[in-house]
Structures are given as C-alpha cells and as structure tokens.
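Fold this sequence, please.
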Amino acid sequence: MPEQETFKPATNIDEAWAAVDAFPLEPGDPRYMDFKNMRGNTGLKLIKMLQRHQMSKRNLHLLFTGYRGNGKTTEIYQFQSKISQDYEVIYFDANKELDVNSLSITDIMLAIAKETVDFMKSKSYKMNEKVLEDVADWFYERVVEKTKIKTKDAQTKAKLGTPKWISFITGSLLASMKMSTENREIVRRTLENNVSELIQRINKLIKAAQDEIHAKGKKDLVFIMDSLDRIEVEQAKKIFFSGGTLLQQMKGHFIYVIPISLLYDTEAILLPFDEKIVLPMIPVCKRGIDRNEDTEKIAKLFELIRRRIDLDKVFSNPDSIIKSFIMTSGGHLRDLMKLISYATNETFDIIEDQHAKIAINTLTKDYERIVHDEEYSHLVATYNTQNPPNDVLNQRLIYNNAILVYEDTDSVGEEWKDVHPALQRNEKFQKAYALSQ
C-alpha cells in the first residue's frame, strides 16, 4: 500500500488505475471517508458493545457482516485504532492463514491458539511457561503423533524453548493441513473428538494472555477474525449455526466477520449469537419504486473518488462519467472502484464516454454470469417490491451481490433490498420485468 503521507490524487491514467485498488485503508489515510451519516455509526456500535460486555464481565461473541468489498476491514482498522489504548487486539486474516475453501470450526480454534501465542511473543509479553508447555504437549500427544508430520519432538522442544514450542506445534499442524488432505482430515477428526479438551486448552492460553496484559495496564484482549465472509455458505452455516455454541465457550472477546447472507438464511433465527452488526450499503437512490436519486449520498461518493483521482485530468467529462459509475455501482464501493479500473483498461490517455460505457457493460456481464435464467423472476419480484421472499434463492443472490441490502436512515432500524443496478441493465432482466407488468 502506498505511504499515506506521500499519497496524492492520480493525475494520469496509470496512476488512476493504481488509485482505485480496493485494499483496506489504515487509520489516518487521506482516502478514508467517514460514512456514518450515510449508513449508521458502525464503529461506535462496536465500541459500545465491547464496553458493555467488558463492564459486565461477559464475553463478547459478535457477528460483523456486510457485503464483500464494502469497507468492513477498513472499519475494523478504525475500530482497532480507537480501542488500542485500552485493549490489545489480535487481528487474524483467515484468507491469509487458512484455506477458506475448506474450513472447519476446529481450524479456527487451532488458529486462535497459534495467533494468541505469536501475538504475545511479538509484543514481548511473557506468558506462564507451565501453561504454554501443557497446551503444546497436549497438541503434540493428541494430534501430531497421529499424523505424518515429521518432527523430533524432544530435540525440537529443547532447541526452541517453551514459548516457541507451541507456535511450532500449532504452525506445523496448520501447514500440514494445507499440504495434505489426509492430514487435514486426521487433524480435524482428532480435534473434533476432543473438542471439549481443545476449548479448555485454548481458554488456558487466553487466560494466561489476559493475566499478562492486565498486569501491564490493559483492560483485555479482543480477537478479530476477518475474512470469514469468504467462506462458502454451507460451510459458514456449519461453523456458525452448528458450531456457534462451541465458539461461545471460548472465554474472551471475539468479533467474527461472516457472510451477510447468513443473516438472511431461512433459519437465521437459530444463529446462537445475540450480538450482530451489519455494515449497510450506501444507497444512491431513495427507498421506493420511483428510485429517486439521493443527491447527498451521490455527492459523498463523488468526494470519495476526488480523494483518489484528479477528475479533470483523468476524465473527459468527469461529472457525467463518475455519476454513471456511482449509479451503476448501487453504492457498492468495490464495484465503484472496479468500474473506474475497467475504464482505465480501455484507454492509454483519458477516460471518455465510450470507455465508461464499456466499463459498465463489463460489470453487467460480471453479474450476468452469476444469475441463472430461472432466477430472474425472483429478481423482478425484488425490483417491484424491494422486499423479496426470504428463501434459499434470496440468500444466494444476496451472497453474490445480485441483491443489495440497504438501511433506511430516515426510518431507524428498517432495511430494504434492491436488484444491483448493473443487473437491471441486463437484457434478460428487462424482458422478465416487461412480462411482469
């Protein structure tokens, strides 16, 4: 990521391509925009939830969700910065550390054990060595010896020392699971058969870490499990529906970033989590089938782009082109950036109207590929009512961004749904809509 202090708005097409890379923004980045007046003060909600649980000596297990690419990680970074004086935060990116295409609840627990020890070591905190040794030995005796991982346990332990021993064991297990399907199944099966003991060992580690940071004047540890929203829906249901009660047996503060579609599952009421926060979309139209433009929010998104690009130097007709991109994105931040990126790929000089049209058509085709022919009737029902039937199909279309969920800021707590504007341009959608009239 470019250094914050050296960042300047792009003045040519190549710089513009780089400027719309949709990476999360660190606190203090000049490109950051605060949208709390547009979609609710998510950061304050997270802080209040944490404070209330801390004061009442309860463990926070919170589900945080929203569309992929809509700024969740950026908001998490902001939250992390605001609580850093009072809390130690262990941030974990599941997409980097685990195989999100094949994930189980015990994978997450194993990763929590490793990340806890690694974090404390990185911050020069000293944990109770007896606890570390007990937990590491348990993993070795119960799991490592049952796999084909090649280790010389006594020699390795003597060479590494106790704190590094548990990191070595948990790291070896996670690595072996990525490399070998056979090892993955052995590790999972063994941990699942001993899940109560596994949770006890993790809680021992968390308690040892908490004792140390309390002694250094911090209130508590907060675990943030990011990128779990990339998990396929059925996997996510197994982890958070079936395994939710197991996760809540871990004695600490945990924030899990999950797929937004789980909250719109037909069995969502069965999710064993009381605390949930959604980062809504930014509506570019007002609620209602007339879809009147929301000029305030459109202006805010213009400002978002101006912080990254000198519009007059990159676009031949910036007001018209940027507005067309904003309206086509439906307020989805990653799609807005994607439209600009697509347009930069069509020219070596300046983005003109024809390049913008190609970019919009490209995004429309992206969404065409995820919708089956028989699903257009559901999309038309969504478009006509902004309140689609809550069924399995609706869940899939929300997961894939074909249906966008908005919060009505004029009516507290209410939400509405609409078809992604790129899909509204689709010929099959337009034919299905005409037949519905």
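Residues 280 and 288 are 17 Å apart (CA to CA). The longest strand covers residues 87-93.
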